[in-house]
């Protein structure tokens, strides 16, 4: 399927597809995996947006296939999750990073991939998130401190408790139960728990929205793709990956 403007976005649990479609008229694809960018380039896209991507049990999108797209004159945008990780690594070569998560990885304030990782449900249910991303917890705790909900020391301890959890088990409920079990002040935890429903911040969603808005403005302006700032090396490994991906 070719979109009218040649815009494609890899999207999963970060933002519901219906919400995304209201922001940008594009073809929405499942979270990106290894080989997907190679295959998509056969459709001659104008721009690709990467928000979500598979990892662990499914090989992650390869850096070189993103460079392949850039080399072919495709504008590649990244934000929020896998897109932020790859953009932080590849922005010197022409990938366009968007949002606070990308900036934190680009600047070295965040380094661990698990900061954006979540466990989610299947595609037929819309990839519902079943855990909370660490970047969202960090932003929410920072807002709680700024709003005077909890002291900075309490937020730092809660952040450490959440970070120590495996990403599959990470969430506000688990974090608060562990905090209570280790004897953190009950009143402070109660204040945070009461504030949380209206105060929690979804940084990944915010960045995904910004990516779609950025792509929409870029497409409307008729802007060219950034020039490739590298020499693309054709190796035997790449040629094999190219053959395997298009089979």
Automatic annotation (TrEMBL):
Name the record gives this protein: TfuA-like protein
Lineage: Bacteria, Pseudomonadati, Pseudomonadota, Alphaproteobacteria, Rhodospirillales
Source organism of this protein record: Azospirillum isscasi
Domain TfuA-like core residue range list: 52-170
Pfam families, per the entry: TfuA
InterPro entries named in the record: TfuA_core (IPR012924)
């Amino acid at each position: 399927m070719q979109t009218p403007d040649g815009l494609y976005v890899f999207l999963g649990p970060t933002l519901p597809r219906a919400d995304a479609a209201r922001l940008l008229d594009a073809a929405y694809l499942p979270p990106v995996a290894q080989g997907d960018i190679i295959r998509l380039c056969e459709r001659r896209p104008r721009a690709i947006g990467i928000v979500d991507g598979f990892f662990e049990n499914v090989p992650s999108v390869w850096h070189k296939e993103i460079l392949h797209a850039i080399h072919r004159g495709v504008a590649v945008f990244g934000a929020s999750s896998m897109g932020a990780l790859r953009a932080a690594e590849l922005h010197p070569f022409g990938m366009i990073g968007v949002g606070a998560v990308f900036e934190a990885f680009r600047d070295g304030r965040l380094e661990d991939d698990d900061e954006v990782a979540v466990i989610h449900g299947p595609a037929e249910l819309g990839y519902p998130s079943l855990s909370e991303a660490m970047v969202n917890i960090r932003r929410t705790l920072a807002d709680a401190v700024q709003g005077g909900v909890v002291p900075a020391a309490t937020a730092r301890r809660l952040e450490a408790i959440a970070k120590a959890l495996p990403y599959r088990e990470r969430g506000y409920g688990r974090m608060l139960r562990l905090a209570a079990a280790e004897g953190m002040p009950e009143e402070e935890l109660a204040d945070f728990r009461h504030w949380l429903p209206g105060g929690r911040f979804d940084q990944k969603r915010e960045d995904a929205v910004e990516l779609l808005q950025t792509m929409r403005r870029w497409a409307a302006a008729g802007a060219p793709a950034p020039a490739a700032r590298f020499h693309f090396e054709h190796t035997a490994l790449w040629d094999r990956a190219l053959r395997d991906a298009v089979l």
